[in-house]
Design goal:
The chain is mainly beta. The protein is 10% helix and 41% strand. The strands form five sheets. It has a ten-stranded antiparallel sheet. Strands 9, 10, 11, 12, 13, 14, 23, 28 and 29 form a nine-stranded antiparallel sheet that branches. The protein is globular, with a radius of gyration of 26 Å.
Length: 646
């Protein structure tokens, strides 16, 4: 870890790998270079300072032994003028390489801006008066959550950079913030001018005072039937770490992190005999949208893009051994920038550990009474982010058989609204007296820069179809595979079809396995969700990436974000819906596969006052990538720690 006293030169002398995230010294150097080059006034804010990732061709030069420039990508915003600039900085030559203005773009909402907005609201006289009407005078118990300001046609939204605040009340310190919604009271805040623009009071309603706590400090009785369970690895873990390079049981990859995406996996390879074969060049969450289904009051504004509007990585937790992660653990810190251009360290932002994953394979030969069984294992690389009321836990899992899985667990507290006694809200579920949880969705999009045995990849849509009845299908049981190559990006806008058991295989048609099939990995969708927004709604137009479960585009450094580069108060149809209109060739070339999946959440009373985790995700499996089962060399288990229970 860098210290404040270290110079940029001493950092660069360490010869970080070109894909390593920026260090503390590099972030500070990048902001100072920009400040020295341009006259940045008091309204200057740094949205982004991150690694300007080298291209595949640059990495090839590096692999051949040539040094590469370390570059930073900087987004600087002037809150006085509304001007946003993208700046590329060389950290080696300490100079600006390029600068361009992005007219009309609004940066993400930073954690610092959310904190200041919360403080401003509670000092606003109109807001204080509205609270007093409800008998609320102790402002220390008032909690406001600021949300991005979804575009609803208000002229202010075109002119200003705004957040909208929803209000809750605690009974006492540490009490569950979301147990008592102050329904009908919201505030609109300009976070450029630091001004409360409008307080909306739709009238005083009933405010529940029910106790709905979950924290340990409030529990009076604990169950006694749970006995300790430990994961013990007396010889240590099976992984090794060299900087950001991880090796584990025939896998290799590099760990990265950005404020917008969170965890990034670079250069994912798997060993096949003596050869290291690449599967994915880059994998990361690219966007997530959380639309709510109530049309009442300010609730239609609840349509958060947690990557593009806040930065899911910037909201990452510092993880705790034995609680967030279990077993023999290796942590990675994350280093991101602050709004003022300084660096911020999120200690233990990434957790890596191994887990038993059940039976890998087994067969009992009843004729010889011999049995062979192997245990599966997974390496888990994870981070957890808190976005207001919700926790999102992202787990990239690697398995011994070459499978890759992303599992997203959703927990935390459902976003609550107030309802009058004996009133049924058709847009949600009553989870406690006077408290409703509205129907909503969590829609994720992951960006996979595929490279299955070299860059020339093609996506094949695979359906299982029934043969027509007749002479060729006399018993009505005949089925066959229909394989359709996706040749152009407009053809790559695809959806799950459970009637055809559909999946997609990313293949390299220039490389064949021992039976002549193109080597490939298949994407198995587990959690397809159709978005709630009607055609023309802000949910459908600003979150156009949710219209399809699969998109395929040529890999491009300029096309990273499926909902557009700057999502905060963005316009319609940015990102993927716009890119595919060019109908680019996507066969036998370097491609990016975008997969949308999610969770359609109808709240239950059991989800309150804190929600048991639910999961969604997908899996990538080798499909003809190997010549045979690649786990025949996994040794039989010797479970010294296992025993027969009483």
């Amino acid at each position: 870890m860098s210290t404040k006293a270290e110079t940029l030169g001493s950092i660069l002398d360490r010869r970080e790998h070109p894909l390593d995230p920026l260090s503390i010294a590099e972030i500070r150097a990048a902001s100072s270079i920009v400040r020295a080059e341009y006259d940045l006034g008091e309204g200057s804010r740094f949205e982004t300072i991150e690694l300007d990732e080298p291209s595949p061709s640059e990495l090839s030069i590096y692999d051949e032994g040539s040094p590469l420039d370390r570059r930073a990508f900087v987004v600087n915003y002037d809150a006085r003028t509304g001007d946003l600039f993208e700046i590329t900085v060389s950290l080696v030559s300490r100079r600006v390489l390029g600068r361009r203005m992005r007219p009309g773009a609004r940066p993400r909402i930073s954690e610092e801006e959310m904190t200041v907005a919360d403080q401003m609201i509670c000092r606003d006289p109109h807001f204080v008066a509205a609270l007093a009407k409800r008998g609320i005078t102790d402002l220390s118990l008032v909690c406001t959550d600021v949300w991005s300001c979804s575009v609803l046609g208000d002229p202010l939204e075109k002119e200003r950079r705004l957040v909208n605040a929803f209000v809750w009340l605690r009974n006492r310190p540490y009490d569950n913030q979301y147990a008592r919604p102050v329904e009908g009271l919201t505030a609109l805040v300009d976070i450029d001018r630091w001004e409360v623009v409008r307080v909306t009071d739709e009238g005083v309603g009933t405010l529940t005072r029910e106790e709905e706590n979950y924290a340990a400090r409030f529990q009076k009785q604990w169950r006694t039937d749970l006995r300790p369970m430990e994961l013990v690895q007396p010889q240590g873990p099976s992984f090794s770490v060299d900087g950001n390079l991880v090796s584990w049981c025939g896998w290799q990859f590099r760990v990265g992190f950005t404020a917008r995406e969170g965890l990034v996996l670079h250069d994912v390879r798997i060993r096949d005999g003596n050869a290291w074969r690449r599967v994915i060049r880059r994998a990361a969450l690219a966007e997530m949208m959380v639309p709510y289904g109530s049309p009442m009051g300010a609730h239609p504004r609840k349509n958060a893009f947690d990557c593009g509007e806040y930065g899911i990585g910037a909201l990452a937790n510092s993880l705790t051994n034995g609680c967030d992660c279990f077993g023999v653990i290796r942590y990675f810190d994350a280093i991101i920038n602050r709004m003022d251009g300084d660096a911020r360290v999120i200690k233990n932002a990434i957790c890596m550990h191994e887990e038993d994953a059940g039976i890998l394979w087994k067969h009992f030969d009843f004729r010889t009474s011999s049995v062979d069984v192997r245990r599966n294992r997974r390496l888990i690389i994870s981070f957890i982010a808190t976005v207001g009321n919700y926790e999102y836990a992202f787990y990239w899992n690697l398995f011994l058989d070459g499978s890759i899985e992303l599992e997203v667990k959703l927990t935390g507290i459902i976003n609550t609204s107030g309802v009058e006694p004996n009133v049924d809200d058709p847009h949600g579920t009553l989870v406690a007296p006077g408290v409703v949880g509205h129907i909503h969705q969590h829609l994720f999009n992951v960006r996979l820069d595929m490279e299955v045995d070299q860059p020339e990849n093609t996506v094949i849509e695979v359906d299982t179809e029934r043969d027509a009845p007749g002479a060729g299908n006399p018993h009505g049981n005949a089925i066959r595979l229909k394989q359709t190559p996706i040749e152009r990006s407009m053809d790559g806008c695809r959806n799950v079809d459970p009637q055809r058991w559909r999946f997609w295989t990313i293949v390299n048609r220039k490389r064949r396995n021992r039976v002549g099939q193109p080597v490939g990995y298949r994407l198995v969708p587990h959690s397809s969700v159709r978005p709630i927004g009607l055609e023309g709604s802000q949910v459908a137009t600003r979150g156009g990436f949710t219209a399809h479960d699969l998109w395929v585009t040529p890999t491009s450094a300029d096309r990273r974000w499926p909902a557009g580069d700057y999502v905060n108060q963005s316009g319609p149809n940015e990102g993927l819906p716009q890119w595919v209109k060019s109908n680019d060739p996507v066969a036998d070339t370097r491609i990016t596969v975008w997969h949308t999946f999610g969770h359609h959440h109808i709240p239950r009373p059991e989800d309150f006052p804190v929600q048991p985790a639910v999961s969604c995700g997908f899996k990538l499996q080798p499909f003809g990538f190997f010549d045979r089962n690649p786990t025949l060399d996994v040794p039989a288990p010797k479970p010294a720690g296992s025993c027969c229970g009483a």
